[in-house]
Amino acid sequence: MSGLTDFFPSRTVSLYMARSFLINTFAFLFGLVLILQTLDLLSESGRILTYPGNGDAQVWKYVSLRTPQIIATFLPFSVLLGTIITLSTLNQNSEVIAMKASGLSAHQVLAPLMLAGLGVAAISFTFNDRIVSRASATLAQWKKVEYGPLPVDRGDRSNVWVRDGTHLIHVQQIRGRGDAAQLAGVTVYEREGAVLKSLVSGKRATRDGSGWRLPAAQRFDVAGGTMTPLGTIKIGDGVRPDQFTLSNVDAESMSFGALREAVSDLKAAGRPTKALEGSLWHKLSGPLSAVLMPLLGAVAAFGIARSGKLFVRAVIGMGLGFLYFVADNFALAMGNLGAYPPFLAAWAPFLLFAMIGEAVLLKTEE
């Protein structure tokens, strides 16, 4: 335990550095969120108020749902900017020189910032998992109804379309999972090629072998305009329950546990999951970028410290940080396309820039 504490500066210095880092980070985050939320609201408020009956309450509701998304997106940028300002200030005030004169290495100087970054990463993961995912799901659903009244959310799937050969099956709502799934408001669009021939509808359908049992069904003939009672029939032979429950999995709108469960269900059904696996891993690697930023921004405090080009060093640190975000988004996009394996798509930029940051630090200072 003593070896671990010896790696850090004194308690007073560590708390001073961590406090400065956190204050700068969250000050930048507050400013970015305030500006970006204002700009976003200016472009979206017209659509919100277009719906009859909407007013200030709905505008503030939009703000409450959109703000968590903006925070989640720009928290890593704020950590980068907070790191640059903290290290630049320490360097400008010769505090880094004083710490190195006392025998501390560059890694020891950065240790309090990286530990604080780990705390920010934990907060970011919890915030994304508990708040952002729910806000994203609600906002996406609200946009679908054009900012009208939201239906009561009981955790059920709604408005699902599934293809059955040339036919299309539309379900207003589905409850349950697996063979216990129940479909409500079922309409089967029977087609020959691209031509619609008839519509088969029923109130509820339950699992029946490899298909679905639809009682009190009716068929509407498009050409004749006649309605024919069919009684109890079987529809969707070969259509699995997961095609309804997992027809549209939005990784951003799901928590880590829910997404992991959805990926497991899709794998069991033999459906492709590589893009979702990449998003699942990124839910871990994304928040951990807060630990990486002090290492990438270290050039603002070390390196050519005696040249006096503080602004140049800060720009270099910012450049390394922004290159990481570009590489991270690129790798995630390639993973979604299937060009990268899921684990590589999520973790390769993090590991690559951790090595780059370490190499720069060792080369210039150690």
UniProtKB/TrEMBL annotation:
InterPro entries for the chain: LptG (IPR030923), LptG/LptF_permease (IPR005495)
Residue ranges of the TM segments: 21-39, 70-88, 109-127, 310-327, 339-362
GO BP term, example: transmembrane transport
Membrane-related topology note: Multi-pass membrane protein
Key words of the record: Cell membrane, Membrane, Transmembrane, Transmembrane helix
Superkingdom, taxonomy of origin: Bacteria
Subcellular location, record wording: Cell membrane
Name of the protein in question: LPS export ABC transporter permease LptG
Organism: Sphingomonas tagetis
